[in-house]
TrEMBL record:
Family affiliation: Belongs to the TRM112 family.
Signal peptide region: none
Organism: Phyllosticta citribraziliensis
Protein name: Trm112p-domain-containing protein
Phylogenetic lineage: Eukaryota, Fungi, Dikarya, Ascomycota, Pezizomycotina
PANTHER family: MULTIFUNCTIONAL METHYLTRANSFERASE SUBUNIT TRM112-LIKE PROTEIN, UPF0315 PROTEIN-RELATED
Length: 138
């Protein structure tokens, strides 16, 4: 499960639907794996405005990953030369590479995701999270 995915998930229990503590889910006993992929700068610059930046900062801190800046960078800040006209012609800077590594290349292979509101744990096995609830929690 890519770390980027956690920025879009919340607890599945009905009791947690109205609670702000149900997002983000917090990793516990997580085994991380880095799967290197080619840098996709257009994807990173397009997903950046859609991220809940505080949730990403919290996630990175909980997993012991490099600290993210306090505020989300602007997509133009991902390029070494922000004056170029074409995004394809621009060279990505270190921040773009770091975000790509965190959001796209880092995955949770084993562990669990925990709701801060109800403490329900969702198991993650072989990189796949199980969000099926037992019948008494639905």
């Amino acid at each position: 499960m890519k770390l980027l995915t956690l920025n879009f998930l919340t607890c599945a229990r009905k009791a947690c639907k109205t609670s702000a503590a149900a997002f983000p889910l917090h990793p516990r006993d997580a085994e991380l794996e880095v799967v290197e992929t080619e840098l996709n700068l257009p994807f990173i610059s397009n997903i950046l405005p859609r991220l809940d930046w505080e949730a990403m900062r919290t996630l990175a801190a909980e997993l012991g990953l490099p600290t993210l800046p306090e505020t989300a960078p602007e997509p133009a800040a991902l390029f070494s030369s922000p004056t170029a006209d074409e995004a394809d012609a621009q060279e990505p800077n270190q921040l773009a590479r770091d975000l790509h590594g965190l959001l796209v290349e880092t995955t949770i292979q084993q562990g669990s995701l925990v709701c801060a509101n109800c403490e329900h744990q969702y198991a993650v096995k072989e990189g796949i999270a199980n969000f099926l609830l037992p019948s008494h929690l639905v």
